[in-house]
Every structure is written in C-alpha cells, then in structure tokens.
Amino acid sequence: MIELPAKFKERMKAQLGAEYGDFIAAYDRPAVRGLRVNTLKVGMERFLSLCPWETEPSETYEEGLVLVGEAEHIGTHPYHIAGLFYMQEPSAMSVIAEAEIEPGMKVLDLCAAPGGKSGAAAAKLDGKGLLVSNEIVPSRAKQLARNLERLGIVNAVVTSAHPDAIAESLPCFFDRVIVDAPCSGEGMFRKDPTAIAEWSPEHVASCAVRQSAILESAAKCVAPGGKLVYSTCTFSPEENEGVIDGFLKEHDDFELEFSRRLYPHLIKGEGHFSARLVRRSSSFKSNLYSNKVRKQSAEKNGIVRRLSMQETAAVSECFFDTLEGKVPDASALRLFRNSVVYCPFDYPESLLKLPLVSFGIEIGELSKKHLKPSHSFFMAAHGFKYRYTLDFPADSRELTVFLGGNTIAADNIQANGVFVPVTVEGFPVGFGKITDGVLKNHLPKGLQIGAYR
Questions:
Q1: CATH assignment of 388-447, among 3.30.360.10, 3.20.20.70, 2.30.130.60, 3.30.420.40
Q2: Is residue 291's pLDDT more than 90?
C-alpha cells in the first residue's frame, strides 16, 4: 500500500466518515488509465473497431475509455501518433462534459498544459468558434501546442501569458472559461510519488491562495451569460469549496450552478473536484469581437498579417499539387511570423498583444515564392482530401520504418516532386516528398521513433 501523509489521512477520515475505509482501500489498487477518443478525426464506432487494447466505457465522459490491463507502448503506437486519441485520466475528462461547450463558442482554457482539456474542448467546438489555450510556463506552452497539433485542431491559439494579462486583453470575451487550477495534487497520489513527497498542510494553504488569484483573473474574461468551470485534482476543501465560497462572497454577478467531487473509491479514476459558475447577464457587451477589428489588426500588427498576392499564389500552387477538390479558404490564411497559417476564426486585435506560441494551424513556410508544407498541415482535422497518399496498416514494417525517420518506397505513386501524407488506416501520421519512386521523409526529428513494439 502507498504510504500516505499522516495529516492527509486524518483530514480525509474526518471528511469522509464511514466511507474512509473504502477510500483508503483504493490505494491498494493501481492507478486507473484512460483515453479520450479524438472525435475531430475519428468516430467512436470506428475507433473501437481499430482499438487493439481492451477497454470499457468511462463513467465520466461519453468519448472516454478506461484501459483494462496493460497497454504497453501506447504513446508510440501509430494511432496515438495520428491523433486518434489522447491519454487522459478518466475523472479529469468530466470537466469538459460539465462545461457545456457548443460549436461556435469562444472558449478559454486558462491553465491548459499539457492539453487534455483543451483537446476535449476543441472536439466539442468541432472546428467552429475560437479556443484560446494558455500556459504561463513557456516550455509547457510549446508542448501544449505540439499536442494540439497532433490532435489536428485548426481553431486554437496557444498563448503563454500571466492570467492577469489575459484578463486585461480579453475582458468579458469568452462564452466559457476553464480553470484547471494548479493544486496540491492529492488525486495524483496513486500515480505520482512526487505528489506525496511535496504534500503538506502548508502547501495546501499556499495553493488555495494562488487558486483564488487565478480564479479572480479568469472571472474577468467571462462574458455576461457565460460560464466559468473551476477544477482541481485534489480533495482538500480549502482548495475547492473554500476557493469557490470566497470568490462568490466577493462577486455577486456570479452564481454557483453545479459542483461535484469524484473519489477513487467511487469511480474508475483518480479523483477530481469541479464547479460551474454562471455570470449573470447584464447590459455590458464587449466590443472586442468584430471583423473590422480583425482587419485593422492584420494591417497594424506585424505578428499576424494577410498574405500578398504573390504569397497567395505560391500557397495555391502547393494546394493544387497536394490536395484534391476543396482547399482552405484564402481569406482564412495569414502569415504568422515566417509561416503561413490557416485560422478559420475571427479574433480581436487585443489577442495579438499576448505572447503567442501558435496561431491556428501551420500550413508551411514560404521560401523563394514556393511553399514548403509543414507536418501540422497534414495532421490537421480540416476535412480536405489529398491527391495522393501512402496508406499502411498499424502493424506494417513500412510504417515502422517511416516513423523511424527513414525513406520508404513509393512505386505506386506516378508523380514526382509532390508532397504526400503517410497514413495509418487512412489517418495521417506524417508526410514526405516523392522523388523517383521514393518518399523522402519529412517527419520532424523530434517525432521520430524506433519500433513501437
């Protein structure tokens, strides 16, 4: 059995009463592992027909699955690389179900890394509306952007800003704000010994202070009639009900709609707390969200700008060689730093004042009037069809060779100098360039792996 802190056990005994024995007994069992099916790319029925692991439905999320038994090397399996699913602790999935997100909404995930809740929110948006995923730590923000890239999300902006900066730039703007607050991590004890080592009553108290400050900033971003979802993976009342009660005493424009606790002895998961608050409607309306503001910002701000006619022509040429039929709308193309991005969403000028890590989905880099497509373009769940593909089953040797960063034969494609996606059961995992019947590998080095078996 895991050796739990004595003061933690004392508090939980007082907190749970007759249930305490069942709660403690849960720590004799291994941590529960789960995954969320990425419905931006694959439906539940198709995924279950492909899934090589034994699973059962999650109690907390419709698109969630609980892994039964071992699932070795699941993170390097081609289905994971293709973005068909995201490894996520089952009780944490419940937060997005409780957020009641609908397509077309503007959503802020304020403490987003590594990206589980952002990915689920994007699936609910279904490519419509805007998702701003923020992570204050730059290195974690970059990992967040890579995870959203793998999931194929086209309508997300990743920022790395302090919550106060988000509140100042985007006041009363979002229909939904998600705050999965940094916490003492009591719900991580079964899976992370570090969480046990770092726990103390003083740590719990300091977390509550920080959580209250983050919640204060988050509330400023909620539009009238919008909803704020606060969550932690801890059991302490100080970090959960205490934070919410303290906030509501200071904010009569918010009311509590819903709250619940999940414990590891009651569900197949590690435990979570969540609360949903709604901001009462008022006459105040934000003037941030307009096409006029978007156009002005593109002209005045050098970070994101429209493409020139020459740049648009280069992109169109690449699309003609790579895609068949529908291509990205030219009005949704921008130049972000040195890359062409596809951003099918409106955005306010003030968003561009924040530290941006990624903006929409990268299409490629322009060089000498030509576009060199990027990995993210082929990973995007944009609904476009490719002119050519190299498709393999998950257990094929050719796919293993490609994922290792090597060239593979492409004798069946009668074309030269074109960029082609490599797919597993129809889902892209990367791409390359055809040269004399060989696919030159363009999989980013950081994503290359050895044999996954």
A1: 2.30.130.60
A2: no
